[in-house]
Amino acid sequence: MPEVSPLFYEEVPTVSGNNKDWLNHIKIGQRFDLEFLSQRKYRGFCELLGYKAGKYVFFRLEDDAIPEAFLVAGLPLVCRFLVEDALGECFAFRSELMHFMRFPDKVIMIAFPQTVQRRALRNEKRASTFIPAKLQLHFEKATQAVLVPGQIIDLSKNGCRFLFNTQYKPEQIRLAEVVIQLANPDTAADMLLSGIIRNARLDEFGLTAGIQFNAEQIALVKALALQAKNKSTAPR
Q1: Which pLDDT value is given to residue 134?
Q2: Is 165 exposed, middle or buried (0-12, 13-18, 19+ CB in 10 A)?
């Protein structure tokens, strides 16, 4: 039996509920990471075309990602996908190749997984929120920081996700140093949070940046949580 990828069983992952709840976190067109397991390993990306629960899953392979001669029925593989919102988890499962189609696109059918495992991408889950703020983007070759308005849509002591509209693409802002300008309800001066963009993605709502703070923000998180609680309990 091929050796199991260490990334698959990293950090003692847990089983995904009733083994079908992972379907709530995927959508058609979503990118998956595929690792084919044999004497010679190949790894590439694909997108979800569809599935029938308990039976099979269809993926479209990126061109030239995997040699066609390598794609034979029964080939074991590992599938992974990320949920980078407030959940912040990686889902992974083992399966095997059932069928390969070459035209009009490279499409594979794999067996529906018997067990799906998941592991946290962060040490703690982030609390969903909606806080107007501004983001300063500092690029290496830029002489001046770019300032964009947006919203903090989830928050923890170590980081947050910032949603905004911009012409930048995700790959252009990854690893950029940032400063978040956040209104302070107690003073006229803004609170400033420095950090770095660790991941970014573009969807129908805009560009979302996953930001890691340079230092823990325990006091800020507690203050914002208390502020949100007071707003929800205030008489209307």
Answers
A1: 92
A2: exposed
